[in-house]
């Protein structure tokens, strides 16, 4: 009876011996370590915690190594230009970005490089917007461009043009088909950080100037043109006096006709991409 029991005790001892190894294996699977990389007898895997957050972000790196001579030289590269020779270093990332960290392990004549751990760090987003032209007449097409910096280096974009339309690119165009003043907004988001810039778009109707004229003596006429609007850069003017004579650049020119008669003077006004004309009849002599 005793001899029959010995094998049973042996099996029980084997089970007790294997159980802790199985538990240790499960623990390593939950550590968030990279897949092991092997070269010769050397094996290395690394982990990081946390792997994302806002600046300044403190990250604890861990390494799991085996093989070699049992004496190891560690060479960490954190993707931001810094390094460490510790087995389990702690690093502070002060700038936003996406950092790929690797560990090179050397033992005797063997070396191996780990798979990379990616750490995403969200810094403050700084945003500049460029919108042109800010004013025009319907239909008014505007170019929009956003240039963000900071964050983690990766951005998403949301343009709101103020008329219900939106777009999701850094650079885009939009056409306004109705008269009005619109508040255009861009929000650039990077991880948990974002920034917003806004600008007003002024959309006008047709450019409709009014021509006026006042006699100055028998043959002279003082002309004046009054536009219903001029954009920020101003208006340009061109007058055709109807007698073969013309002048540009003057809003209120004085013209002296060389003969008596009736004439039709026409003014052309331009502002931005808008053009308008008006005419007036005059009699002299």
Explained architecture:
The chain is mainly β and 285 residues long. The chain has three domains: 32-122, Sandwich (Immunoglobulin-like); 125-204, Immunoglobulins (Immunoglobulin-like); 210-284, Immunoglobulins (Immunoglobulin-like, Sandwich), CATH 2.60.40. The chain is 10% helix and 56% strand. The protein has one helix and 25 strands. The protein has one helix at residues 2-29, and strands at residues 37-39, 42-49, 52-54, 57-66, 73-77, 83-84, 90-93, 97-107, 110-113, 117-122, 125-132, 135-137, 140-150, 156-160, 166-167, 171-176, 180-190, 193-204, 210-216, 220-226, 236-240, 246-248, 254-256, 261-271, 274-284. The termini are far apart.
Summarize the structure.
The protein is mainly beta and 285 residues long. It folds into three domains: 32-122, Immunoglobulin-like; 125-204, Immunoglobulins (Immunoglobulin-like, Sandwich), CATH 2.60.40.10; 210-284, Immunoglobulins (Immunoglobulin-like), CATH 2.60.40.10. The protein has one helix at residues 2-29, and strands at 37-39, 42-49, 52-54, 57-66, 73-77, 83-84, 90-93, 97-107, 110-113, 117-122, 125-132, 135-137, 140-150, 156-160, 166-167, 171-176, 180-190, 193-204, 210-216, 220-226, 236-240, 246-248, 254-256, 261-271, 274-284.
């Amino acid at each position: 009876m005793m001899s029959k029991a010995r094998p049973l005790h042996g099996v029980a001892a084997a089970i007790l011996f294997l159980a802790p190894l199985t538990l240790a294996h499960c623990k390593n699977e939950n550590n968030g370590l990279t897949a092991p990389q092997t070269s010769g007898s050397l094996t290395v895997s690394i982990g990081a915690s946390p792997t994302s957050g806002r600046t300044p972000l403190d990250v604890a790196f861990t390494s799991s190594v085996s093989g070699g001579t049992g004496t190891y030289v560690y060479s960490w590269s954190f993707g931001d230009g810094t390094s460490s020779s510790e087995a389990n270093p702690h690093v502070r990332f002060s700038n936003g970005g996406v950092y790929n960290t690797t560990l090179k392990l050397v033992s005797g004549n063997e070396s191996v490089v780990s798979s990379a751990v990616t750490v995403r760090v969200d810094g403050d987003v700084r945003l500049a917007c460029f919108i042109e032209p800010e004013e025009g007449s319907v239909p008014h097409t505007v170019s929009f461009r956003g240039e963000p910096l900071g964050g983690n280096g990766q951005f998403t974009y949301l343009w709101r043009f103020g008329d219900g339309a939106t777009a999701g690119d850094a650079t885009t165009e939009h056409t306004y088909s109705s008269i009005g003043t619109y508040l255009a907004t861009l929000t650039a988001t990077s991880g948990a950080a974002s920034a917003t810039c806004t600008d007003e778009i002024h959309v006008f109707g047709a450019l409709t100037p009014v021509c006026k004229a006042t006699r100055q003596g028998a043959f002279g006429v003082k002309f004046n043109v009054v536009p219903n609007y001029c954009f920020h850069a101003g208006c340009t003017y061109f007058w055709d006096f109807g007698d073969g004579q013309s002048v540009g650049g003057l809003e209120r020119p004085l013209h002296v006709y060389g003969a008596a008669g009736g004439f039709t003077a026409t003014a052309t006004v331009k502002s931005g991409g808008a053009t308008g004309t008006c005419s007036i009849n005059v009699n002299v002599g």
